[in-house]
Design a protein that fits this description.
The structure is a single chain. By secondary structure, the chain is of the alpha/beta class. The chain has one domain (about 5-220): TIM Barrel, CATH 3.20.20.60. It is about 40% helix and about 15% strand. It is built from eleven helices and eight strands. It has helices spanning about 5-10, 25-35, 45-50, 60-75, 95-105, 120-130, 145-150, 160-175, 190-195, 220, 240-255, and strands spanning about 20-25, 40-45, 80-85, 110-115, 135-140, 180-185, 200-205, 215. Strands 1-2-3-4-5-6-7-8 form an eight-stranded parallel beta barrel, surrounded by six helices. Helix 9 (about 190-195) links the parallel strand 6 and strand 7 (about 200-205). The model has no long low-confidence stretch (mean pLDDT about 95). It binds 3-methyl-2-oxobutanoic acid. 3-methyl-2-oxobutanoic acid binds near residues 23 and 44.
């Protein structure tokens, strides 16, 4: 059995081994991730969309993140578990951002937190956390908590000035002590440039092959929602078909009396 992976080991993987990361929100899928050798599990606020069926991640609360993070952290002993700091918990004040991050670690049992963006406000909060021993993962590019400001789920960093701002934000995050940065939905060339410009690992989602690692939402990778097929997702299974076929068969057999069989 693999030994427990630590955050310093994730940092040391840059340039030597690609980092595998997947989201998980419950006990069963966290165990699948661990048994498959995944390095890092992200309890993403994407659960607002794939678990709760909402259109954005904006309504996810700290209590919900703590609940899911605790379930995932209790299910595994090997991968690093990082929990997302949701929208409502990171926008009111720095004190509130810090306090909610600490709750994800203590009550949610996460090993670190992921925080979107690199505004002065966010950087101050991150500085406070990292200088007091809390591992923080940054998140740049398409930051879903800025859904309304960005005008939807749109690819970012498409012109040279936006790309330059993102590169500088990545360097500021590095300075503030984050241990890695998620790069979401940006051109491959920018993903590679940022990866080569910082000493910490980058984890890409729709950011090309030049990143130090990759993350996907588990429901997308397993093909659980037939309505959702963005270009950057590779569906490694078609669970939508497998599950609906099994449930339809069960439904028919209950209706026609084939299940349960008489002993
Ligand atoms: O919430 C999430 O799952 C994420 C990943 C898509 C990176 O932020």
């Amino acid at each position: 059995m693999r030994k427990k992976i630590t955050i310093p080991e994730i940092i040391a993987m840059k340039g030597t081994e690609r980092i595998s990361c997947i989201t998980a929100y419950d006990h069963a899928f966290a165990r699948f991730a661990q048994q498959s050798g995944i390095d890092l599990i992200l309890v993403g606020d994407s659960l607002g969309m794939v678990f709760q069926g909402k259109e954005t991640t904006l309504e996810v609360t700290c209590e919900q993140m703590i609940y899911h993070s605790r379930i995932v952290a209790n299910a595994v002993s090997i991968p690093v578990v990082i929990a997302d700091l949701p929208f409502l918990s990171s926008r009111i004040s720095i004190e509130n951002l810090v306090e909610n991050s600490l709750r994800l670690i203590t009550e949610g049992r996460a090993h670190g937190v992921k925080i979107e963006g690199a505004s002065d406000f966010i950087l101050k909060g991150i500085n406070h956390l990292t200088s007091s021993g809390v591992p923080v993962m940054g998140h740049l590019g398409l930051t879903p908590q800025s859904y309304h400001q960005l005008g939807g789920f749109k690819k970012q960093g498409l012109n040279s000035s936006d790309a330059e701002v993102m590169l500088n934000n990545a360097k500021s995050l590095e300075k503030s002590g984050v241990f890695s940065i998620v790069l979401e939905s940006i051109p491959e060339s920018l993903g590679e440039l940022i990866t080569n410009s910082v000493s910490i690992p980058t984890i890409g989602i729709g950011a090309g092959a030049g990143c130090d690692g990759q993350v996907l939402v588990i429901n997308d990778l397993l093909g659980m929602d037939e309505r959702f097929s963005p270009s950057f997702v590779k569906k490694y299974a078609n669970l939508h078909e497998i599950i609906t076929t099994a449930l339809s068969k069960y439904n028919s057999e209950v209706k026609n009396g084939a299940f349960p069989t008489k002993k």
